[in-house]
């Protein structure tokens, strides 16, 4: 049971906008940067968002992150079939003194 | 080009020992932390611990403290994850990843599948 909570699933049709939430507490999201990772089926995770809102080079601007208080969100616009993947938020937790991953959200493109 | 190349899949019996490795290239190995992440079959990502190759400073998640050992050999730019007595519940895919501080876990190994079965 992670200290971060994500919905287990999300879905959308091509072209739609989808958001995935990540809920935490004052010891993690409330005071540290949130990161988002995308894991395509059968592959290693890939960094999608760092420092709450920043995109690494090569990540399309269809992906965006936000953070407010003890919650964060990942938004995907212009949904594509290739976006079908598991998405994880992660953050340093000051109480646990380590990185915590949420349970992940499986995104289905209908 | 930054790369983390992990050792290959293994099948072990309960009670056996194991060391898996992660060889880094394309950057200054000593100056970035390396983390290990577990993914059990069909499950999510779990942070196991982290090591700084420069001085071997190591931190463990409470869930993995005492269960595994993380080490590093700077001379060959390689980090390792070790078990002394495997259990069936250690069956998982294990990833090493470079920790680029506020820039996130930016380079991942391809994963090492460990299967523990009698």
What's the structural blueprint in terms of helices and strands?
The complex is a heterodimer of chains A (110) and B (118).
Chain A: E1 9-12, E2 18-23, E3 34-39, E4 46-49, E5 63-68, E6 71-76, E7 85-93, E8 98-101, E9 105-109
Parallel strand pairs in A: 1-9
Antiparallel strand pairs in A: 2-6, 3-4, 3-7, 5-6, 7-8, 7-9
Chain B: E1 3-6, E2 10-12, E3 18-25, E4 33-39, E5 45-52, E6 57-60, E7 69-73, E8 78-83, E9 92-99, E10 105-108, E11 112-116
Parallel strand pairs in B: 2-11
Antiparallel strand pairs in B: 1-3, 3-8, 4-5, 4-9, 5-6, 7-8, 9-10, 9-11
Short description:
Chain A is mainly β.
Structure write-up:
The complex is a heterodimer of chains A (110) and B (118). Chain A is built from no helices and 9 strands. Chain A has strands at residues 9-12, 18-23, 34-39, 46-49, 63-68, 71-76, 85-93, 98-101, 105-109. Chain A is globular, with a radius of gyration of 13 Å. Chain B is mostly beta strands. Chain B has no helices and 11 strands. In chain B, the strands form 2 sheets. In chain B, strands 2, 4, 5, 6, 9, 10 and 11 form a 7-stranded mixed β-sheet that branches. In chain B, a hairpin with a 5-residue loop joins strand 9 (92-99) and strand 10 (105-108). The N and C termini of chain B lie far apart (40 Å). Classes of the chains: A mainly beta (110), B mainly beta (118). The interface between A and B is medium-sized, with 25 and 23 residues.
Percentage of β-strand residues of chain B? over 45%
Structural class of chain B: mainly beta
Please compute the radius of gyration of chain B using only Cα atoms.
14 Å
Beta fraction of the residues of chain A?
over 45%
Q: Which overall shape of chain A is indicated by the principal axes computed on the Cα atoms?
A: globular
Task: Give the termini separation of chain A.
Answer: 29 Å
Number of helices of chain A: 0
The total count of strands of chain B amounts to 11
Give me the Rg of chain A, rounded.
13 Å
Low-confidence stretches of chain A: none
Q: Mean pLDDT of chain B, rounded to whole units?
A: 97
Secondary structural class of chain A: mainly beta
